């Protein structure tokens, strides 16, 4: 009798032990595609690691109502066509419940229509505003959300600081890619609202290695400050070229560049450079009353001590974007399940979600949910980022 029933008993005990765990439930698939190779891999790769870290935390805490989350990873390589193919795969083959990513504004815009047609909510980690803007040219954004601050919010935060410091005559140097153009549009559009006079506008390629001509033209226009809008090494090159030319005007970068890599590449030239940033970059300087402080502290501890990601990818302003996106999506799933329309609606009703990058209150009109109070102005001092004075 024992030989007959022993395997059955073991199987029953095994199944019982799994029944109360997330591992026993069918996984909820979330697509996650980033620039894991190509020019923006320095952003995309650590973003993937953070996405995995967030999912690991959720699953260890019981998943989404007992179901674990499974990430389906894709590498866009920074190529819009590849991003489109991956998005289609996520929706029609992998049958994901939601999508996180991509990395850049250009790839985000490339998949916007695919997302709308497939009706799967996507929480992007891109910087540019067009992905969550509508109209005949940009198309609907009903199914698209994004976790980084809008470019317009970053511009407002920067202009508030410039106005406060009496720096009202500026020269713009912006990248010719989607992110740079979006920044240039908002910088131009919002300038009158803050009494800012743009005396020169210069453009450069995002992979250019010398911007001395643009800097010379900008200086000759007589500005009080230089404002640069780009991500990646180009920002550091502008800073170095400025120092090489002996230009003593204050330099302001965009919200995509608070990153130790910026200081490493620009060297001593970066000293004094300022830029809008998430609070993550100056977490130690936040008052205890700031609702984000404990959330940021937990994130930093996991990132550095728990997973050791900082050894290869030091924390930068981008680090929390995938975390915030996944946490908001997971919270919405706990409330509404994974049926696409219900999940989309639940994400859109997110209110007061305290994240690493800010406190999110999403509405049908605003699929980002962050305002200027989510940002600070940081400054490079003694080779580190500190709160700007």
Helix content: 40-55%
Q: How many H/I helices?
A: 12
Assembly context of the chains: single chain
What's the pLDDT, averaged over the residues? 93
Can you describe this structure in just a few lines?
41% of the residues lie in helices and 17% in strands.
Question: Could you explain the architecture of this structure?
Answer:
With about 400 residues, the protein is of the alpha/beta class. The chain has 12 helices and 14 strands. It has a 5-stranded parallel sheet. A 4-stranded parallel sheet has the order 7-6-8-9, sandwiched between helices. It has a 3-stranded antiparallel sheet with strand order 10-13-14, covered by helices on one side. The N terminus is likely disordered.
From the structure above, extract its key features.
389 residues; alpha/beta; five-stranded parallel β-sheet; four-stranded parallel β-sheet; 12 helices; 14 strands; 17% strand
Secondary-structure topology with pairs:
Elements (H helix, E strand, L loop, with lengths): L1 H18 L8 E7 L6 H20 L8 E7 L4 H14 L4 E3 L4 H14 L3 E3 L19 E3 L4 H14 L4 E7 L2 H13 L6 E8 L7 H9 L4 E5 L3 H12 L6 E2 L7 H7 L7 E5 L13 H15 L14 H16 L3 H9 L4 E2 L4 E2 L14 E7 L2 E4 L2
